[in-house]
Amino acid sequence: METVIALDELRLARLRLPETVGFVPTMGFLHEGHLSLVRAAQAECASVVVSIFVNPTQFGPNEDLAAYPRDLQRDLRMLAEAGADLVWTPTPEILYPFGYQTWVTVEQITQLLEGAVRPGHFRGVATVVAKLFSCVRPQRAYFGQKDAQQAAVIRRMAQDLNFDLQVVICPTRREADGLAMSSRNTYLSPPERQAATILYRALSAAQQAFAAGERDAGRLRQCMTEVIQSEPLARLQYASCADPDSLQEIEGQISPAGDHQDCALLSLAVYIGKTRLIDNILLGD
Ligand code: AMP
């Protein structure tokens, strides 16, 4: 496995890679969720490139940029073991040099859910991913369903800007008790870690209600809200039952999926103490 930092090193290393190239962008502090993307890329591509970059432009002024967990040596060991071919660890100065002033804005779908409570977040995400795509030039790029809105934004951006690549979305990897794996789980104290299972329990309760025939979107939101409110360490930011493509809240009845497999996206943002966690589940027909 080769590790590079500078852009010219990346370009040279990229030229030597057998095609097709699969790409997994990450912010590091890797866990099994990230490694599942690396494995999916390996299964489908001749070479796998991983980037590790804690992107400052997707963090708000009161968010956890400085505190975001980092352990590059551990990440590199995990990626070598997982069989990545090339790891790129650019610095903020490489991606945002002095005088930088170009931004990618995806419009409607970034206004809702995460975008509504984290202004500017998706401008940072879309911009850095567009830059990473231009530098790495992958044929396939792998993202997690864990960040459902991010996946929708990247898919839209790749299509709208004519990136010649396929965006692949992989399932959310969970701990044994259902908590979605996340680098931010390391912020949780033991009692908070226990309380954090409430997100998956709320999503599962709504999923069960759906399976039992409940089709009223408001009642599914209410169901998730009540479960979250039963946990004293949890504070709900939003509980959503939305159209999986437009991300608009569904009002009234969830309608059959038509051509699609999925007919609604249930998603949650919840503070457990000071730690903000998100999770989601797709409802099918
Ligand atoms: P991050 O390092 O948080 O920016 O995540 C890098 C990529 O890993 C993104 O595409 C995430 O959606 C994906 N990812 C993060 N957590 C998980 C998980 N638990 N299961 C699957 N993919 C994940």
In short:
With 285 residues, this protein is of the alpha/beta class.
Describe the structure.
The chain has 285 residues and is α/β, with parallel strands linked by helices. It folds into two domains: 2-170, HUPs (Rossmann fold, 3-Layer(aba) Sandwich), CATH 3.40.50; 183-284, Pantoate--beta-alanine Ligase, Chain: A,domain 2 (2-Layer Sandwich), CATH 3.30.1300. The protein contains ten helices and nine strands. The protein has helices at 7-16, 32-44, 72-82, 92-95, 113-117, 121-136, 148-160, 190-195, 198-211, 217-229, and strands spanning 2-4, 21-26, 47-52, 86-88, 140-144, 166-170, 234-242, 262-272, 275-284. The strands form two sheets. It has a six-stranded parallel β-sheet with strand order 1-4-3-2-5-6, sandwiched between helices. The protein has a three-stranded antiparallel β-sheet with strand order 7-8-9. Strand 2, helix 2 and strand 3 form a beta-alpha-beta unit. Helix 6 packs across helix 7 and helix 9 (198-211) packs antiparallel against helix 10. The radius of gyration is 19 Å and the shape is globular. It binds adenosine monophosphate (AMP).
